[in-house]
Write a structure and sequence with these properties.
Helices cover 37% and strands 32% of the residues. The chain has four helices and eight strands. Bound molecules: nickel (II) ion.
């Protein structure tokens, strides 16, 4: 089944802020798909479909910027065992070697063994990702993840 959404009800809009002129568009999709989408965005707290769809588009643009090796900002979160020999020195060394890309770092002593560190990185996505991979692959780094964002969305 196909549900044609009337053009008089805006489904995708462009904010008047940084993006400028507001444009209205319509889209067609299966009723079932739309119902599932509505249920999910309702649970997430979206007030309307437009904002949910805008966020999906922005997410897509961030992925595209990453794929195209554009300048991105990354947040690398990791948990490591600071008793691992030489690990603290290696982590500091890796960050200093790429000092132009490290904007800030925060360290929290979680318990007797574990430290949590959040490093904010800026640079071409390829460089940021390879620094993150280098850090996350060090022995003693138990868990971590790089979250990427841009201002392109
Ligand atoms: Ni610590």
């Amino acid at each position: 089944m196909t549900l044609l959404v009337s053009k008089s009800s805006p489904i995708v809009t462009k904010g008047r802020g940084a993006m400028g002129e507001l444009v209205r568009t319509g889209l067609s999709l299966e009723k079932e798909l739309l119902e599932k989408f509505d249920a999910v965005i309702h649970r997430k707290g979206y007030q309307n479909r437009s904002e949910a769809i805008r966020d999906l588009i922005r997410e897509h643009l961030v992925h595209a910027a990453t794929d195209e090796n554009k300048v991105i900002v990354g947040t690398l979160t990791m948990v490591y065992d600071h008793h691992q020999p030489n690990l603290s020195a290696k982590l500091i060394e890796a960050q200093h070697a790429a000092s132009s890309k490290v904007l800030a770092a925060t360290h929290v002593h979680l318990d007797h063994h574990h430290c949590l560190e959040v490093v904010i990185l800026k640079g071409r996505s390829g460089e940021v990702r390879s620094l993150a991979d280098r850090i996350l692959s060090l022995r003693g780094v138990k868990h971590g993840e790089l979250t990427v964002t841009t201002t392109h969305g």
